[in-house]
Design brief:
The protein is of the alpha/beta class. Strands 1-5-4-7-3-8 form a six-stranded mixed sheet, with helices on both faces. Strands 2-6 form a two-stranded antiparallel ribbon. About 10% of the residues have low confidence. The chain has eight helices and eight strands; from the N terminus they run E-E-E-H-E-E-E-H-E-H-E-H-H-H-H-H. The protein folds into two domains: about 160 residues, 3-Layer(aba) Sandwich (Lysozyme-like), CATH 3.40.80; about 50 residues, no CATH class. The relative contact order is 0.14.
Length: about 230
Amino acid sequence: MSNFSNSRLISLTRLSPHRNSPRNQPIRKITIHHTAGNIGLEALGDWLSRPTTQASYNYGISTDGRIGLFVEERNRSWASSSGLNDHQAITIGVANNTGAPNWTVSDRAYASLIELCVDICQRNRIPRLTYDGTANGTLTRHNFFSNTSCPGPFLQRRFPQIADEVNRRLRPDPPRTPEEITVDNALADGIIGDRAHWLGVLNGTIRPVPAYIAGMMRNAHNIISR
């Protein structure tokens, strides 16, 4: 089992009694919900603490982008109508800035969602988020497990984008070395300026360019550009 920690991105802690302590699975997934309303962080914490609510998220995000902790990561929240999912998942409720039918979220809330997902993955050694439109991925939706519109059309359409954005931050593309520069990407980067000429130099092939040729290309381009 993981050594659990909580995000340092939070600005509010209001722990809900609606949880199982501890969770019985390592953290492998993230499940995103919407709150079905433009509810502030403090009000969300109050609602999740009411005895009658019988629901909770690990984290909530308000329209202004603030993040609250409502169930510690070592514990299972009551969020997705699936104990199997929620024992493996960190659940996040995101406030809406408009209502039905689209249930949109603000740019600030969306940016905080991406940042929080990256933080969760890094601390829990989730190498990447996978979203395949089923409950088998590491990024899951409430409506995989229950007859509900949650997370709403706005967020649901963006699940592939969310996974891509998080994964780019988890594993940014490494910078290319001179040996990895090809004619096509050198053109795109502005290193060289005449494709036909340099294809001729390379005998009509597009292949990795040795460092000394890459240097010559840069020098020639600099001279031509003066």
